[in-house]
C-alpha cells in the first residue's frame, strides 16, 4: 500500500495559449524553498493542463507556445523539490484538452442530439470541450503519458484529472456500443458504455504507470466517490476534492470521507487556499477557514492537500504560502498523533440510491451534531464491524441484504430504519424485524408528531410538524409505540386550504411516529432527507431518542453545542478524540465563510474505554488533564477549545 505524504499542495497551471511569457519568472531554488518554508512535503506538478499544453522539453507540438525555449519547467520543478526532500507526483489532464479538441473536433464527445459536449455548455461561453475516450484521442493521451513516464522515470506518481464517465454518441462510441449489444438510443446503455470505457482506460493507464514506476501513486480524479468500489483496483489512494467555497460546501467532505475510509486505501482531503474556487487569482481565504479544513481532515484520519494555481510567469503567491505554511505547521506538529490513527465507528449507515444523495447529507449533519461515530457503507460491507446499522429513508434492499440484516439482528446487532427502508409494495409490506403493520403512504403531504412519555424528556410539549409525506404504520404485537402521529384536518389544495402553509393539526391517530421492537427501531418519515432540506429539529430529536435506546453506550458523549464536532481515532494503544469548534457563516447566497475562531470553555467528554487509561493529555502540547474512570467510561473536562483540540487517552 502506497504511503501518502501528509502535507500536500495540488498545483494547477491551466495556462491558455494567449499567455506569452510562461515561466519567465520561474526560479527553481526559490520555488522549492517556498514550499519548504510552508511545511509542504509533496507537490503535484503539471505535465499537461486543460488547455492541452505540455510544460517540459519535448518535440511534441502540444508544448506551450509561450513557454520559453529551452525551459524544461516540469523537470526543474521536480529536481528542485526532490532536492528538498519533497515529493513531486505529476499531473495529466485527460478529458479536458483544448489543443486536441481544436485540432481534432471529431474527437469531441457528442450529446444525444449530436451537439458537442462542453463544460459549461454554450459555444460562446469560456469553458472546456470534452474529449471522447472511445475515440482515437485515448491513444493520443497514452502517447503523452508514455513520453512523460519515460522522461521522468521513476515518477513519484501520476494524477490523471477529469476522468468521469462521459457518455457520447460519436461514431466510435456508437460502434462500441453496438459491438457490446448496447442500444445507443438508450440513456442507460450510453451510461453503461461510458463506464466500461472509463474503467478500460483506467486499467490501461494504471498498468502503464506501474510498469514504469512500481512505487508510484496513481489516482483518477472526478470519479463518483460513492461508487468507488468498482474503481478501487486502479487507484493507489483516494483524493476527496472538496473546496468548501468552490461549490462543494462544508458538508461534502464529512459525508464522503465516511465512505471512502471504508475502502481499505489511503485517502486525503483536498481544499484550496482560494476565497472561491480553482484559479481564483488574488483570492485568499481567511486563515481560520484553512485551519478548520485541515483540522477536519486530521480528525478523519486523512492526509491534507491544499490547492493552488501558479501564476503563468512561474511565480508562487507568497501570501498564499504564508497561509498554507501556518496551517501546515500545525499539521506537522500533530503528526506523531496522526500517523496510523484509524477512525472508529459504532454505526454503519447503508448507502442510498443515486437520486437520494440529500439523504446522506442529512445523515451526516445529524449524526455529527449528535456526536455519534459512523461510517457510510456499501450493502455488501461487513456488518459485524458495527454495533448498530441505519437504513436511512430510502435504502433499497436486495434479498441478500435482507438475509444479512436478519442475521445481524439475530446476532444481537441493533438497527434503525426510516422512511421506506425495509418496506416495499407502496409501503404495505415490510421486514418483520421492524415490528410494524404498514398501511401504505399517508394521504397527507405534512403531518405532526407527538412524542410519547418514554422519549419526551427535554422535548417541547407540542405537536411537531413533519414537512414530508410519511407511511401510515401501527405498532405490531410486542412492539412499543414511542410517538404518535397527529394528522391535519385535511390535505391542503386550491379547493380547501387554511392560512399560508400546512393545514393545522387536528387529532391524534392510531398511527405510530416511532416504534421499537426489541433491538430494532423504526421511524415512518424521511427524517434525514427532511433534516437536510428543512433543518427540522423534530427529525433530529426522533433519531436521537431512538439511538439513545438502541445504542445506550455511545463511544463518546460530549456536553457541548451542536456545532461542536467530535471524532474518535485509535492509534495503537492510544485513543485520540478530536474536538472541532468552528462556525461557518453564510455571507453570500452561495458562500459560507469561516473567519474567526470562537473559544469554547470547559467541555466535558466521556469516552467508552475497556480499561482505565494511564494518562490523558492535550496534544501536541502534552498538557496533562485530570480525569476520572467509572463503569467503563473515562471522563475529562477540556478547559478550552480554540477551534481544534486533540485529547489523547493512553
Structure notes:
49% of the residues are buried. This protein is an alpha/beta fold and 650 residues long. Helix 1 (28-37) crosses helix 2 and helix 9 packs parallel to helix 10 (318-334). The strands form eight sheets. It has a nine-stranded mixed β-sheet with strand order 13-12-14-15-24-23-22-19-20. The protein has an eight-stranded parallel β-sheet with strand order 7-6-3-2-1-10-9-8. It is globular. The model has no long low-confidence stretch (mean pLDDT 97). The chain starts with 6 loop residues before the first strand and ends with a strand. It has three domains: 7-94 and 137-163 and 217-339, Glycosidases (TIM Barrel), CATH 3.20.20; 345-550, 3-Layer(aba) Sandwich (Rossmann fold), CATH 3.40.50.880; 556-649, Immunoglobulin-like (Sandwich). 26% of the residues lie in helices and 26% in strands.
Summarize the structure.
This protein is of the alpha/beta class.
Q: Please mark out the parts with pLDDT under 50 across 5 or more consecutive residues, or reply none.
A: none
Distance between the termini: 28 Å
Please count the beta strands (DSSP E, at least 2 residues each): 35
Number of individual domains: 3
Morphology: globular
